[in-house]
């Protein structure tokens, strides 16, 4: 026996699981990777992933709307080394990471709203 679709999101389920329970398929999926090379301590890697996951969760509705009927896979990756605790306090690091992630995801949403470029055909006509 299958359970009926749930209209009210369950606060205990993550957003993706709630969307699947309601029958809606999320159009944007997120992957997050933080390597040991850029964040030596597991505590720092977990903090960075948590901040990026939260930014992705907040940006998902805008990306879904901008994507239209396309599915978008987004991978967020830490490229620069994480500063040490003595160089930058963790609250400041969290704030900077969140700002940069929000800016990048907003840029992606704007790029997705632009009409897709038409590839030229063999004779050069679009």
Topology, element by element:
Layout lengths: L14 H8 L5 E6 L8 H26 L4 E6 L12 H24 L13
Parallel strand pairs: 1-2
Helix pairs in contact: 2-3
- What fraction of residues sit in β-strands? 5-15%
Total strand segments: 2
Order of helices and strands: HEHEH
How would a crystallographer describe the biggest sheet? 2 strands, parallel
What class do helices, strands and sheet pairing give? mainly alpha
Proportion of residues in helical segments: 40-55%
Give unreliable regions as ranges. Answer: 1-13, 16-21
Shape: elongated
Mean pLDDT: 82
Read across the widest sheet, the strand sequence of neighbours is 1-2
Distance between the termini: 52 Å
Instruction: Specify Rg, calculated over alpha carbons.
Output: 19 Å
Count helical runs.
3
What assembly state would you assign to the polypeptide chains in this entry? single chain
Structural notes for this entry:
- There is one protein chain.
- The chain has 126 residues and is mostly helical.
- It has 3 helices and 2 strands, in the order αβαβα.
- It has helices at 15-22, 42-67, 90-113; strands spanning 28-33, 72-77.
- A two-stranded parallel sheet has the order 1-2.
- Helix 2 (42-67) links the parallel strand 1 and strand 2 (72-77).
- The longest helix is centred in the middle third of the chain and has 26 residues, at 42-67.
- It is elongated, with a radius of gyration of 19 Å.
- The termini are far apart.
Concise description?
The chain is mostly helical and about 130 residues long. It has helices at about 15-20, 40-65, 90-115; strands at about 30-35, 70-75.
């Amino acid at each position: 026996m299958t359970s009926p679709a749930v209209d009210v999101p369950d606060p205990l389920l993550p957003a993706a699981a709630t969307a699947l329970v309601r029958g809606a398929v999320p159009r944007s999926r997120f992957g997050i990777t933080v390597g040991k090379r850029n964040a030596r301590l597991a505590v720092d890697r977990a903090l960075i992933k948590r901040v990026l996951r939260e930014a992705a969760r907040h940006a998902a509705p805008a990306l879904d709307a901008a994507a239209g009927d396309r599915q978008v896979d987004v991978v967020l990756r830490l490229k620069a080394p994480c500063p040490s605790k003595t160089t930058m306090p963790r609250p400041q690091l969290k704030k900077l990471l969140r700002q940069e992630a929000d800016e990048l995801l907003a840029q992606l949403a704007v790029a997705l709203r632009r009409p897709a470029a038409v590839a030229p055909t063999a004779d050069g006509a679009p």
